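Suppose you are handed a protein chain with no further information: no name, no annotation, nothing but its sequence. What can you learn? This example shows the usual starting point.
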Amino acid sequence: MSENRILKLDIHTHIIPENMPNLREKYGYGGFVRLEHHKPCCARMMVDDRFFREIQDNCWDPDVRIKECNHHHVDVQVLSTIPVMFSYWAKPEHAYDLSKLLNDHIADIVHRYPTRFAGLGTIPMQDTDLAIKELERCMKIGLRGIQIGSNINNTNLDSPSLYPIFEAAQDLGACVFVHPWEMLGTEKMPKYWLPWLVGMPAESSRAICSMIFGGVLERLPNLKVAFAHGGGSFPATIGRIEHGFQVRPDLCAVDNDVNPRDYLGKFYIDSLVHDPMMLDYIVKLIGAERIALGTDYPFPLGELEPGKLIESMPFDNYTKERLLSGSGLEWLGMKKSDFGF
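A reasonable first move is to predict its three-dimensional structure. Written in structure tokens, the prediction is:
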């Protein structure tokens, strides 16, 4: 290992157990994901009888992931479930049971490969008490925090029912990764993959604005929260958001009278923006200290060559180090030496 090589840590990757139980049979109703292993090294993700996504063995096999990481010089991946597995719509006791299954799977991989992986859990956000119970267990089994959706059954993240969960996360030192899901307007844009291209960026901005305007970030200044996909459309529209706050405080400042621009640099985003001009912009807007490498591995909308965009930029070594691992380590509450680097 070159002494000058920068640790490369990817905070945004997804994984699922290879052998999922029949959840429809287990819980007595449908809507859950099952895997059809229809050919070697591949599986279809099915929601009941509806096709959702084709995945390969890099979505469940840690050895395959490590091989691919070695090829791209990725030292550490932070593992989290695939957002379709959140199951916030399910009965709370069943989402809780499923969360434990998924979290134990990730914790086992982290335990077996401690220098290559860190883990985030999923929790049943539709039930505050069960969510906190599983969050506490996540931290006891070696996970670093949780991944949650950008909304919970169309409830925004400023909901009073969710605040105790965020408060518990702050108290536990757990990091929170907010991933867009159940995208706005999906039913109105069925063609061209628009929910993923248009809805997902809007969802991330929805989540950030909800936590700012709802006062969550103001009341919990030590909450370690990161937003996926470069913060979605939020960075590009902060001027509009601030202007709205200033001209219509009667609508925007009803729960928090602090300018939303003041929160830039107080939360993390990942680097998944696919564009050098946008990466340069968010570094100038938010600061490299709050941006961490994230790729959405192993899915096609992710960065297919992890870290390539960051490494191609004319940033100084400090900035590249922050983006490739320094900010991610800080968010996780970990050190390079935790991974033998």
